């Protein structure tokens, strides 16, 4: 079944077509969300929301772009929204903690680490460091970098997804790498890991 | 003589994005600089995390869960619901902070010396002695 038939099926409410679409693209959508939110359970929850949106808005899909382009756009938008909401939540929490005397910070990380075998501690720390560095990138750099590194997409496809020029994608990814490099160098010099 | 350190080129070196000339310079420098070599390993291991974590196995119940959610009515208010709860809480906290600050200021102002000066210079504010600002605010609470 080709993509056009699949979408036509979904537009008519056919569950079998929807299931085929989900099974074809679930890895791609979860992986894209993971690159932005860095947590597998959150990435799967987001991917579920992405497919629900597809099912409920399928009639709006005109077929002038590929299904994957459509999925990538929704996946990156929803992931960024989750990050923004979490930031807002943390902001209110920090205000609340300032008044209530604060809660036990960092317990989450140390608990996670206790579950890990010793030889993985460094990997966990490296992973935390890399995620923090990616999170500090401006949103457009983060999307372009994620699509390129996690999904291994060529610049031309990223340009289509983000609806920007090829030169802009090159510049975004170059700046993303430069920013990551600076943050990792800073950490290396301060021996933060 | 040792050439200038090339930390900033290394991420592009790892991705094979340097010109031949730059690449040769980087490799030459790496041979003579232990610090840049160390950093290259640090950077490489950091970036490799992406290769290790990407494309995780998707839960085998992914579609089953999704299929159950298709039966539910769409929920459009998850975000605004949160804001509805958080904003009043935030403004209550700001209000409490204001009251607390006011009480602090009030207790400073009623220290004997300041109090004396105030009553001498502004006699018409004497009514405040009958009802201190603290109890006025506390009544409101
Ligand atoms: Zn050097």
Indicate the CATH architecture of the largest domain in chain A. Orthogonal Bundle
Q: What is the count of β-strands of chain A?
A: 0
Summarize the amount of helix of chain B as a percent range: over 70%
Identify the bound ligands.
zinc ion
Say what the CATH topology of the largest domain in chain A is.
Answer: Rna Polymerase Sigma Factor, Chain: A
Mean pLDDT across residues of chain A: 89
Class computed from helices, strands and strand pairing of chain B: mainly alpha
Alpha-carbon distance between the two ends of chain A: 50 Å
The whole-number mean of residue pLDDT values of chain B reads 78
| Secondary-structure element pattern of chain A, one letter each | HHHHHHHHH
Count of discrete domains of chain A: 2
SSE pattern of chain B: HHHHHHHH
Give the radius of gyration of chain B: 34 Å
Please provide the count of β strands of chain B: 0
Helix fraction bin of chain A? over 70%
Strand content of chain A: under 5%
Summarize the structure.
By secondary structure, chain A is mostly helical.
What features would you describe in this structure?
Chain A is mainly α and about 190 residues long. Chain A has 2 domains: about 1-100, RNA polymerase sigma factor, region 2, helix turn helix motif (Rna Polymerase Sigma Factor, Chain: A, Orthogonal Bundle); about 115-193, Orthogonal Bundle (Arc Repressor Mutant, subunit A), CATH 1.10.10. Chain A is about 80% helix and about 0% strand. Chain A has 9 helices and no strands. In chain A, helix 1 (about 5-10) crosses helix 2 (about 15-35) and helix 7 crosses helix 9 (about 165-190). Chain A is globular, with a radius of gyration of 19 Å. Chain B has about 140 residues and is mainly alpha-helical. Chain B folds into 3 domains: about 5-55, no CATH class; about 75-105; about 110-140. In chain B, about 70% of the residues lie in helices and about 0% in strands. Chain B has helices at about 10-15, 20-30, 35-55, 60-70, 80-110, 110-120, 125-130, 135-140. The longest helix of chain B is centred in the middle third of the chain and has 32 residues, at about 80-110. In chain B, about 5% of the residues are buried. Mean pLDDT of chain B is about 80; it is low at about 110-135.
């Amino acid at each position: 079944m080709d993509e056009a038939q699949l979408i036509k099926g979904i537009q008519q409410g056919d569950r079998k077509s929807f299931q085929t679409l989900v099974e074809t693209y679930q890895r791609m959508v979860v992986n894209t969300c993971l690159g932005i939110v860095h947590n597998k359970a959150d990435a799967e929850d987001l991917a579920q929301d992405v497919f629900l949106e597809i099912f409920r808005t399928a009639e709006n899909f005109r077929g002038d772009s590929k299904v994957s382009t459509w999925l990538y756009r929704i996946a990156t938008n929803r992931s960024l929204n989750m990050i923004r909401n979490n930031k807002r939540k943390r902001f209110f929490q920090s205000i609340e903690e300032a008044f209530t005397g604060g809660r036990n910070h960092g317990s989450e990380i140390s608990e996670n680490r206790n579950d890990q075998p010793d030889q993985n501690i460094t990997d966990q720390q490296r992973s935390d460091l890399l995620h923090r560095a990616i999170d500090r990138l401006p949103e457009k750099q983060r999307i372009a970098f994620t699509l390129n590194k996690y999904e291994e997409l060529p610049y031309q496809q990223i340009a289509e997804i983000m609806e920007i020029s090829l030169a802009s994608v090159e510049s975004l990814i170059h700046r993303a790498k430069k920013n990551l490099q600076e943050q990792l160098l800073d950490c290396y010099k301060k021996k933060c890991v | 003589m040792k050439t200038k350190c090339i930390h900033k080129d290394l991420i592009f070196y790892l991705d094979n994005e340097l010109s031949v000339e730059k690449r040769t310079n980087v490799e030459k420098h790496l041979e003579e600089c232990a610090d840049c070599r160390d950093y290259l390993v640090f950077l490489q291991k950091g970036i490799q995390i992406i290769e290790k974590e990407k494309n995780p196995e998707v839960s085998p119940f992914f579609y089953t869960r999704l299929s159950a959610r298709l039966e539910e009515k769409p929920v459009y208010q998850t975000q605004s619901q949160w804001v509805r709860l958080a904003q009043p809480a935030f403004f209550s906290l700001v209000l409490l902070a204001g009251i607390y600050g006011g009480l602090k200021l009030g207790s400073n102002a009623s220290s004997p010396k300041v109090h004396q000066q105030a009553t001498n210079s502004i006699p018409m504010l004497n009514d405040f002695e009958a009802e201190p600002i603290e109890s006025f605010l506390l009544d409101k609470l």
